[in-house]
Amino acid sequence: MFKYLSIFLILFGLQHGAVAQAPVKVEEGFDYRVLTITQPIDTKGKVEVIEFFWYGCPHCYEFEPELKGWIKRQNKDVVFKKVPIAFREELMPHSQLFYALESMGKGDTLNDKIMFAMHRENKRLLNENEIADWVAAQGVDRNAFLATYRSFAVLSKARAANQLGNSYRIDGVPTVAVQGKYITSPSIAGTRAKAVNVMDFLVSKVRKDGYK
């Protein structure tokens, strides 16, 4: 009896495992979109992935843990970039903040803290003084930050980020672009988890297509 029970459990386990590990179905037009005009990418022979985001977006904040986990398990042929989008002129300070910290080598350290401050501590960080005060409280020299924040280079990057978003026809965030031609997001795919599965699918597709 125990012999037959063991065989049954093994077979059930194998069958159950096969179901659990079945590949997720990904469909063009439902889970991702193909851009009408392919956008140029900066790195040849690799997979370029861009997340268009906004610090103040609650959906971006919620997506961040899944996104970080996805980034950590990528091969070296995947190049990931974050691009801030300001859908209104009054939100441009957030894009400037992103590029100022990036220029100072502080982005990786402070980006998560900024989102936490905005979404858990109800800070808006929308005017220069408030932003500078907050950054200084994180141990960054206030005057050095302001000089970088106001610089032509940072202002140009913030404007260019919006132009790039327009080229990709970004109308909501977070949105992920792969290889300048594919677009997906939690809202397009339906859930954050499904969006991550779609990103895996698209990266594999680009590899199979010879990084085209």
Look at the helices and sheets and give the structural class. alpha+beta
Strand order of the largest sheet: 1-5-4-2-3
Order of helices and strands: HEEHEHHHHHEEHH
Q: If you average the pLDDT, what whole number results? A: 92
Cα-to-Cα separation, first versus last residue: 58 Å
Secondary structure: elements and pairs:
Blueprint: H1 2-20, E1 33-34, E2 47-53, H2 58-72, E3 78-84, H3 92-103, H4 107-120, H5 128-137, H6 142-149, H7 152-167, E4 175-178, E5 182-184, H8 186-189, H9 192-208
Domain Thioredoxin: 16-166
Pfam family, one: DSBA
GO cellular component, one term: periplasmic space
Account of the protein in words:
It is a single chain. Helices cover 54% and strands 11% of the residues. The chain is an alpha+beta fold. It has a single domain, classed as Glutaredoxin, CATH 3.40.30. It has a 5-stranded mixed sheet, with helices on both faces. Helix 3 crosses helix 6, helix 3 crosses helix 7 and helix 5 packs across helix 6. The longest helix has 19 residues. The chain is globular and about 50 Å long.
